[in-house]
Amino acid sequence: MKSITWKLHLKASSEQVFDLLSSPEGMMKFWVEKASQKNDQIHFTFPNGQTYTARILKFLPGKEFHLIYFDTVVKFYLKPLEKQGTDLILLNEQIPEDDLLEVHAGWVSVLMNLKAVADFDSDLRNHNSDKTWDQGYVNN
C-alpha cells in the first residue's frame, strides 16, 4: 500500500475551504456532480456516473476532515495563515500500488479545481458525461 501527500496554498480562509471540502454543497462546486450526506456517510456521484459512499472519520471545522474514500483513507488538514489564506495538506493513505498513478493525478485535478473555486469562484470542469476522466479529459 502506498500514500500520496499534496500541499495547496489558497487565498480563501480555512473556514471557506473547509466548507467546500466537507459539505455536499461545497463538494458539488469543485469535486462531484452530486453529493448527499446522512449521518457520517456521504454519497458521491461523479461525472461518469460512478457512485461511492464515503464514511467520515474526523470532522474538526476549519482544521481537519478525514474520510474513507474508495477504500483508502483521505485526510485533509487546513492551516490558517496569519496574513491571509490557508495551506491545505492532503494525505491519501492505503492506496493499492496498481492505483497509485491514477490517484496521484486525480488529486491534482481535484485540488486545482478546488483552488479555482475557492480563490476565483470558477469551476473548471466541463460537466459533460461524454468527456470524463475515462475518455482522457482532465476537466471532467
Quick recap:
This protein has 140 residues and is of the alpha+beta class. Helix content is 26%, strand content 39%. A hairpin with a 5-residue loop joins strand 3 and strand 4.
Give keywords.
140 residues; alpha+beta; Alpha-D-Glucose-1,6-Bisphosphate, Chain A, domain 4; 7-stranded antiparallel beta sheet; 7 strands
CATH fold type = Alpha-D-Glucose-1,6-Bisphosphate, Chain A, domain 4
Number of helices: 3
* CATH architecture assignment name: 2-Layer Sandwich
Task: Tell me the total number of β-strands.
Answer: 7
- Structural class, from helix and strand content? alpha+beta
In whole angstroms, how far apart are the ends?
A: 27 Å
- The gross shape turns out to be globular
The CATH class label is: Alpha Beta
Strand order within the widest beta sheet: 1-7-6-5-4-3-2
The Cα radius of gyration reads 14 Å
> Any low-confidence stretches, pLDDT <50, length ≥5?
none
Can you identify the CATH superfamily?
Answer: START domain
For the biggest sheet, the summary is: 7 strands, antiparallel
Spell out the helices and strands N to C.
Answer: EHHEEEEEEH
